[in-house]
Model the fold of this input.
Amino acid sequence: MAESTKTAKLTIDGKDYDLPVYAGTSGPDVIDIRKLYGQAGVFTYDPGFTSTASCDSTITYIDGDRGQLLHRGYPIDQLAEKSHYLEVCYLLLYGELPSPAQLEDFESRVTNHTMIHEQMMYLFRGYRRDAHPMAIMVGVVGAMSAFYHDSTDISDPWQREVASIRMVAKMPTIAAMAYKYSIGQPFVYPRNDLDYASNFLRMCFAVPAADYEVNPILSRAMDRIFTLHADHEQNASTSTVRLASSSGANPFACIAAGIACLWGPAHGGANQACLEMLQEIGTPDRIPEFIARAKDKDDPFRLMGFGHRVYKNFDPRAKVMKQSADEVLDLLGIEDNPTLQVAKELEKAALADPYFADKKLFPNVDFYSGIILEAMGFPTSMFTPIFALSRTVGWISQWKEMISDPQLKIGRPRQLYHGETLRDYVDIENR
Ligand code: SDX
Done:
């Protein structure tokens, strides 16, 4: 961490405390409160971490006011247009865009780790066929901690590297298997002659009874969706992976914890919830009814795919996703997709409404993604597994950064306690 450039003065009960302030290369300065409890005997209080920096990172930067997302300094719209997912994976994992030789080597290492241990097939059989694919992914990814013991010694940089490659490589295979299992079709093995996105599409949609040709339009759109979801600073699931990993736990088990957190509708589960909401709205004339519900304090309903903890402007990923939705549906010859029409009308109506404008609520990454995924043939239950697949490289990059920090400490927050004060046990006959 850079040297402190200034101090913040805190006065409690007439006593002054000077706290070091650090500046990053971008974004808000931070006040270092690590010694506050020792000096002043008080904690800070920030349940949703709205004003708390949990770590010092160099991977991703978000400027919420400007609607900017940078991965190692490169803006997401340029990466989505000019790069591709495995190159973005390399950038996130190693900090720089790869040379041609570095990219070829990285893609070869990922490609040659896409199969999973054959015995893991039996794990799927223990689930009901109607299990949500996210329930399967949490279980199967967690089970990787029992199959790859040669890449779980996190103190060994080489084993950390192998675990990273294995996670990036195997997530599409596991996600596709979860899908196949849910529809009662046989698993399709990965192929080394296909690129990452094409391999995933084939593992999802190929059947033994027919040849499967990957549609290049869908493959490019799939790869772009992977890129748009790759990493996003210290979001809830990434923070989950960091906290779980801070105890030195098995990396695969920590990724499973991240998958569990991502599943929630307030986070990665919003893409499924958003499409289901758009389908429930059905036609533009019902939009006012749903806008009213979203504004009603007594109604827990929220516009799914809208709002963000950090973005108080357009989510740059939503902009790219919206363009991609138009392109993909047009190229697929899907005219006048009613769900896309409702989405566009809903966005227009919400952004014109003072409630959303005043609270700076804009479409986020989940607002348009489901429309593309549905057009590609995925059921809504596969939307969040695809988010999890894409975000694995972000979780792993953040994990690697944290684990390799010699200052690493186990994460152990404190609390504001409002429970019972000390009292003696009462025997049951006296209650
Ligand atoms: C992701 O963190 C990340 O980076 C996440 C993510 C990533 O890539 O990892 O970007 C992915 O999770 C995107 C977000 C997906 N979730 C949704 O689309 C679900 C709907 N959105 C919300 O639930 C909400 O906006 C959150 C959870 C995304 C953010 O919530 P915050 O920051 O805790 O804000 P809040 O709940 O305190 O809301 C502030 C105000 C409240 O009104 P007041 O109490 O101040 O009067 O805005 C209102 C909220 O009621 N509000 C909404 C709303 N979102 C916030 N009102 C209606 N509809 C919404 N969608």
The chain has a mean pLDDT of 95. Residues 157-182 form the longest helix (26 residues). The domain at 72-267+389-403 is CATH 1.10.580.10 (Citrate Synthase; domain 1).
